[in-house]
């Protein structure tokens, strides 16, 4: 299958953007553009965790329900979730009702609070794993990378769950840590311009 898709506006997009109607807007406005907001970064990791074993289409269709159910993915609020919140979420038909994943993202919220307190921000930590664009292979030819393996390893070391190398790589693609838009995609240059204008968060500040 071609890695390009001719959209209704006669401009090419990444091939996957044509596989579902709701993907085009997500591809054009979000995927691959740099994000420095801690809440959005945490949300994406949570949604990637819920996607494990499922399709992104399923998760994207439920994204607003997830946001409502998890207090906008504000990890400072989610850190305080207890057994009552777990049961509430398990009863919510608007999200993926998987106890292990629900408990994992609640646990990850506590880890996110620790990271923000220790290093100043989640963004600074995640962006420290941005690879050198000059060393990247052809777009969309892999599902993991040395950086995603390293990021996954460090997150697991810190107690995060459902954050394997493939999940970490999908997160890096979506949040603009790499520009993985296919060559010939009309959004590739836009993502490059956004990355060029993006002010990278400061490197992690580890408190001894």
Helix content: 40-55%
Intertermini distance:
51 Å
Q: Calculate Rg over CA atoms.
A: 17 Å
- Low-confidence runs of at least 5 consecutive residues: none
Concise structural overview:
With 208 residues, this protein is mainly alpha-helical.
Could you explain the architecture of this structure?
By secondary structure, the chain is mostly helical. Helices cover 50% and strands 3% of the residues. Strands 1-2 form a two-stranded antiparallel ribbon. The chain is globular and about 50 Å long. It starts with a strand and ends in an 11-residue tail after the last helix.
Task: Note the main attributes of this structure.
208 residues, mainly alpha, two-stranded antiparallel ribbon, 3% strand
Tell me the layout of helices and strands.
Elements: E1 4-6, E2 12-14, H1 23-29, H2 38-51, H3 56-61, H4 63-69, H5 75-78, H6 83-90, H7 99-119, H8 122-127, H9 146-157, H10 165-174, H11 188-197
Antiparallel strand pairs: 1-2
């Amino acid at each position: 299958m071609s890695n390009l898709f001719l959209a209704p506006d006669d401009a090419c997009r990444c091939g996957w953007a044509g596989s579902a109607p709701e993907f085009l807007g997500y591809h054009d406005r979000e995927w691959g553009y740099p994000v420095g907001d801690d809440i959005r970064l945490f949300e994406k990791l949570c949604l990637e965790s819920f996607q494990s074993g499922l399709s992104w289409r399923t998760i994207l269709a439920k994204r607003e329900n997830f946001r409502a159910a998890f207090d906008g993915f504000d990890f400072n609020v989610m850190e305080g979730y207890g057994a009552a919140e777990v049961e509430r979420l398990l009863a919510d038909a608007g999200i993926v009702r998987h106890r292990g994943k629900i408990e994992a993202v609640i646990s990850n919220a506590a880890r996110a609070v620790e990271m923000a307190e220790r290093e100043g921000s989640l963004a600074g930590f995640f962006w420290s794993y941005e690879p050198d664009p000059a060393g990247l292979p052809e777009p969309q030819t892999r599902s993991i990378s040395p950086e995603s393996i390293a990021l996954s390893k460090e997150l697991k070391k810190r107690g995060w769950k459902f954050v394997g190398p493939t999940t970490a790589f999908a997160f890096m693609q979506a949040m603009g840590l790499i520009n993985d838009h296919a060559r010939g995609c009309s959004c590739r240059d836009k993502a490059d311009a956004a990355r060029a204008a993006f002010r990278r968060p400061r490197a992690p500040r580890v408190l001894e």
